[in-house]
Design a protein that fits this description.
2 copies of one chain form a homodimer.
Chain A (H helix, E strand, L loop, with lengths): L7 H8 L3 H8 L11 H14 L5 H8 L4 E6 L13 H13 L3 E4 L11 E2 L2 E2 L6 E5 L5 H10 L3 E4 L11 E4 L1 H15 L3 E5 L6 H16 L4 E5 L7 H11 L3 E4 L2 H14 L8 E4 L15 E3 L2 H16 L8 E4 L2 E3 L9
Parallel strand pairs in A: 1-2, 1-5, 5-6, 6-7, 7-13, 8-9, 8-10, 10-11
Antiparallel strand pairs in A: 3-4, 12-14
Helix pairs in contact in A: 1-2, 1-3, 5-11, 7-8, 9-10
Chain A binds a DNA duplex through helix 2 and helix 4.
DNA sequence: TTATATCACTAACGCGCGTTAGGTAAAGCG
DNA sequence: CGCTTTACCTAACGCGCGTTAGTGATATAA
């Protein structure tokens, strides 16, 4: 038995004027394009007060077009219960900038029973928002293509390519960061380093590899071994690989592999960094159990999130004619997990 | 020159039917009240796919009064840059359950330049969502009252009271948790404990105090000293207070105070727990720098978030006649920061 | 007195969509 | 052949509101 909320029509009836007049009065028709007498204005205001009128924002949005909604779609769970540190800085940046842009943030959480999909029943669910920021390591390229064809405004966080299309993204400059990281190792004197990682088909991984290779080119006798997944699955396997290849340093493109490398090293009784140097090519998220400050490439995920939103706003407002791609620099932090080789 | 998003009218034109037909087809008019031939249905679906049509949720909401949007409003920043652990578990739970309920999550981030406000220019900004989950230690009671009067469906995470109104909330059972925590101390033999904290006007704090007092009642010669803010502002001030009152244990309702107590203790050269026991009445979020497992009350924020969404859905669907309040139990984890007094 | 400007307001459109009464043609029936 | 039923679709209303063309009344000017 909750009373329906009063509308402009109710106010109009009570004040004895037309609904249009009510709208004009309430929107404080300042520029005086339509003059309203003070008497009527007062009557309307009083009626609105008496009824406790408040405009229905939904109706307002309908008539004004844009709904000030920025979507966030993730190909993985937005808030992973265990791995809280990963998406968080992105969302933090997204929130800040969305606030700046005077927009609300819409998290697409509907219909996530199976793999997250943008298109459901052939319909673009993102259309709920004026535009969207996309996240996730493994997007569906077909969906990205279709979004582009539809001209739906979106910005991907992370470099993602689709054959024959120009996407809009912001990405950590992994290539530059990795270049610096490997150069650091090489300048310390390392000549044979191991690269822990697979998934070479993903762009970020490619960038990391590319950066490493660029550093290698500058030192003729240096080489890098790409370790196969089996070779860092157990501590003994890794130990064997290190021995076989004569590795003096390990490079990890990934936070969990970095941790794993360190614990394996401890298991094998290798002193880090004296006997083995270890570098992470991404931000080291969890605090180390070894009280060593990690040598790693520090990303600025917060900034990346904010930038994505800024670019998205530009696209939505038509201030960006063609999709743009932006690299955000990242910084090598030299810590205590690297040293000259023995 | 961003293309305007397609409407049902566009689909209708492309399919060569009337707009009403499009609506009927897309809403999967199952009960067959209005029969549609398979041929037309296919044409419409195809046209919708081709145009990338998706219904405008704002318009849908206007006409049917619901759009599967659950709002999240926070009186503090949702994603605080530094303090990442706090809201995260809540959001994690909210996301899970919203997904279950087949709803998207809307974060209210607009107009956050000053203090976050639900009512802006006299209108309820939450009305954009079917209902909302509210968070934040210090809500505006007037706003909560007004929301209730408007009969807007919301669930507060954390017990919050408004004189003369029945709110709907889910809360950690701080009272029970604190009772257990203090009982633990008392059973260890402590008789004079200090309570670090202020902000007594807030409900969670009141609950913690109430739980402590209940435990005290069971041990006649035990007493608890409420330390004033000045008394734990510096290590020396705290040291003086501990000496003056003869404290053998400290109780902290707050994570940061817990950490501060531990570092002050270290500064003063007090062994924890041998010379001083310390208990936290909330989840200890950051890993300790002391490698001591903390004795603390463990909250289940993830579950709390999920439960809030579940209750909110019930309210929205009219399955909850009167606002309900639910306590979620929390658990005392006995760690290594407590021991019998010297 | 008639033309013109000013004032104060109303009528009406459209935002995009869900819904339903009604309309049209084909099919069934006697 | 005329009447009813059936199948399929359209026209139109209304959700609540912002906006503007237009209308009628009064005041000013020629």
């Amino acid at each position: 038995m909750s009373m329906k909320r009063p509308t402009q029509m109710d106010v109009a009836r009570l004040a004895g004027v037309s609904r249009g007049t009510v709208s004009l009065v309430l929107n404080d028709n300042t520029d005086g394009r339509v003059p309203i007498s003070d008497a009527t204005r007062d009557r309307v205001m009083q009626a609105a007060r008496d009824l406790g009128y408040a405009p229905n924002p939904v109706a307002q949005m309908l008539v004004q077009g844009s709904n000030h909604l920025l979507g966030v779609f993730t190909y993985e769970q937005v808030f992973p219960y265990d791995k809280s540190d990963f998406y968080f800085p992105y969302l933090s940046g997204i929130e800040s900038e969305a606030s700046q842009q005077d927009c609300n943030v819409l998290l697409f959480t509907r219909n996530r029973s199976t793999r997250p999909q943008i298109y459901q029943n052939g319909m673009n669910t993102l259309r709920l928002a004026d535009g969207s920021v996309l996240l996730g390591s493994k997007p569906d390229r077909d969906e990205l293509r279709r979004l582009t064809e539809e001209d739906y405004p979106f910005v991907y966080i992370g470099r993602r390519e689709v054959q024959g299309y120009e996407l809009c993204w912001v990405a950590n400059n992994y290539k530059e960061g990795s270049y610096q990281a490997l150069s650091h190792l090489l300048h310390l004197g390392h000549r044979t380093v191991g690269f822990i990682g697979n998934e070479v088909e993903l762009e970020p991984q490619q960038d990391k590899l590319a950066g490493c290779y660029r550093a290698l080119e500058e030192i003729p006798d240096a080489r890098m071994i790409i370790l196969k997944p089996a070779e860092f699955k157990t501590a003994t396997a890794l130990a064997a690989a290190v021995d076989d290849y004569g590795l003096t340093a390990l490079v990890s493109p990934d936070n969990t592999y970095f941790h794993r490398a360190l614990s394996y090293a401890q298991e094998c009784g290798w002193q880090v960094p004296e006997m083995l140097s270890v570098v992470s090519l991404t931000t080291v998220e969890n605090s180390l159990p070894f009280s060593l400050r990690p040598t790693h490439v520090k990303l600025n995920r917060h900034h990346l999130g904010a930038l994505a939103v800024k670019m998205l706003s530009q696209r939505i407002n038509g201030e960006m004619e063609t999709p743009q791609q932006v690299y955000v620099p990242c910084e090598l932090i030299v810590g205590e997990t690297t040293a000259p080789p023995r």
